[in-house]
Each structure stands twice: as C-alpha cells, then as structure tokens.
Design a protein that fits this description.
By secondary structure, the protein is mainly β. It is about 5% helix and about 40% strand. The strands form six sheets. It has a six-stranded mixed β-sheet, with no helix packed on it. Strands 13-14-17-16-15-26 form a six-stranded antiparallel β-barrel. Strands 19-20-21-24-23-22 form a six-stranded antiparallel barrel. β22 (about 290-295) and β23 (about 300-305) form a beta hairpin. The longest helix has 10 residues, at about 325-335. The radius of gyration is 21 Å and the shape is elongated. The protein starts with 7 loop residues before the first strand and ends with a strand. This is Trypsin-like peptidase domain-containing protein. It holds the Pfam family Trypsin_2.
Length: about 375
Amino acid sequence: MRQAIGAIILAAAGPWAGAAAACPDWRLAEDAVTHSSDALWTPQTYALTAGGDHNLRDCDQPGAGYVVAAPDLRLRFTDNAAQRDLFIRVEGDCDTVLLVNDPATQWHFNDDFDGLDPAIALPRAAEGSYDIWVGTFGRDLCAARLVLETFGPGQAPGPGGGFGDPGGGVAGSGTGFVVNREGWALTNAHVVAGCTTLEVAGTTVTRVIEDDGADLAAILLDPAPGAAPLPLRSTLARLAEPVHAIGYPLADILTPSVRATSGSVNALSGFDGGESLIQISAPVQPGNSGGPVIDAGGAVIGVLSATLSEDVFRGAQNVNFAVPTAEAIRFLSANAISHTLVPTKGTTAPAAPLAAWEVVEAAAAATILIRCLD
C-alpha cells in the first residue's frame, strides 16, 4: 500500500476454524525453531522462498497473496517474562506478504510495511508457537529473508521505520481519488486487500471492486465527495514530462494531510520491459499507494502502485512505479464506472497556463485518505 500499517488480525473460532482445503494450515508445520526473548534481542534471519500456489482470497485467512499450505517456519517463543515485543519482518526480492498464526490462534496479515516488505509487530508477545507464512502478492516465487527479533515493550518499529504501537485498529492506509460525481474513487487493489472495513472521512464505503492482476480497485462512496472528479488522460505518458504525485504518505506517523511531490516520467515500462507500469521520479512513501500521478495540466496519467526499496536493490533511489491510465480506463470501463477522458495534457486549454500549485491544489481536493480497519 501498496502502505499497510500494523497488522490485520482475525480471531479464529477455534484452532483451525473455517480453514478451506489447500489453504494455510498450522497443523502442517514440521520443523520448528526455538528462541527465547533474550536470544531474539539479536535478530535471527532465515532464508526461504516466498510464494506458493494458494490464493489467500480463496481462503478464510485475512489478506491477499499466494502462499503454501504448510507454514514456512514455526517459531517456539520462550521466556518472555520481560514482555518484550516480537517483531517479524521480511526482506524480499519481490513484493512479499506476511501471514502469522499466534499462540492464541489469531491470524495476523501485513503487506508493504516498509516499501514492498511486510512486517508484523506483536506487542508484549505471548510465549508459545507462532506459525509463519511468507507469500508473494503476485503469482511468481522469489527469494526472501525472514527476520525475527525482539524489542522493549512498546518499542517495536512502526510503519516507515518509526517506533511505537500503531494501535487504534488501523491495519493499513493508502490513497485514492474521485473519478465521477456518483462517488466512485480509484485506488490500488493492495490498499483494500484483506480489510474488514474501509474508512474514508465524511463518507461511507458501500462497494468495492478489485482487479488484483492490474493492482486496481474502485470504491463507491456514499455520500459522494463534493470535489470535482479528476479526468484521466487518454494519451500515453511521455519520457521526461513533468508529473506530480499526490497522496497521504505515512498518515499514522505524519499529520494526515495530503502531500505532493514532483518529478518526471523516467520510463514507459516497469519490470522486465512490461508495459503494465510506468516509472516516475517523484518521491513517494508508504501510504502513497493508490494516489494520482498528474501531468502539468492536472490530468491523471497513472495510479501510484509501488516503489523499489533500497533493501531489495542496493542503491535504488526514487525508483517508483504507477499503473498507467490505459489500464485504469480499461478497468473502469469493464465495470461500467463512468469517468472523464481528456486527450492531451490537462482538462482544458486555459487562457494562461496554470501555476503548478494551482494544478496540484485542484487535484488534491479530489484525493482521499483510505484507512483499512481490522
């Protein structure tokens, strides 16, 4: 998100309540590792392969992504009289997700805690068995490192590298933007994945449509926001053209205010030469996911989706990706969601060019903060 803040928690009715066939099952755990609270004061790392054949969306467990049925690791956590926080994180070579079943049989899920890497903080962790799955948001497998460590009570890292218990039932946050007067807003699929409730200030989310393959989602808001909807540009982005990225980064750490950054289009393709993403240099942070990337005239040319973390590729800086509007237009049209198209930069040809702040201010009014509640 996409930023996902904290962890999604779903209480099971029993040790394996509602588990569907070929879904994550803690009973399939084989080998276990045992660490005391003191031992994990020094982080312990395990190399593994992330991903699997089972789609979490087809299972009763929370979240989205692909995992194997048996846990990738079972941790027997002991001797926590000091009531330290247990911090479980993943360093992946692709977009990874993290699923944990704790000693009380509660499920915890996280995606994109730090860039594309997930993490789960368990305050004052109970002693007992933690079954851990490391999955992938897409279908492809990749190498990953699972890191286990402890922190003092209430001191486990928060989203974006900060510290403290996220609390408040917020499992994640992201950005969206209004596309029509009926109340439809566009965002990323990973922003809304696994959410029990979606919260947008001043309105209620009444419907969600997702396309995992394109990483796009539409949410219907009632009442509809009063801001003018953002138009989508029907022509392709151009190399080196200036853009602005708008969103709500790190909303639970910084003041939850809309923020804008500027840059340019760096490439018209993403990974492996694919055209499902465009690359931009405007700086983004966790929480920007789903926000609009606009051109100099205020028309949307992309939907912010991902950033290449320096943890994944050493030296990576401002390597950020957006879903191009061609994909967004296809998604909206396929779901009969009305939207406005403009053929070239901007919405109209004003008598005098608008200043950058005027363009950004107009787009920011149609940009919304989306909170995922557990």
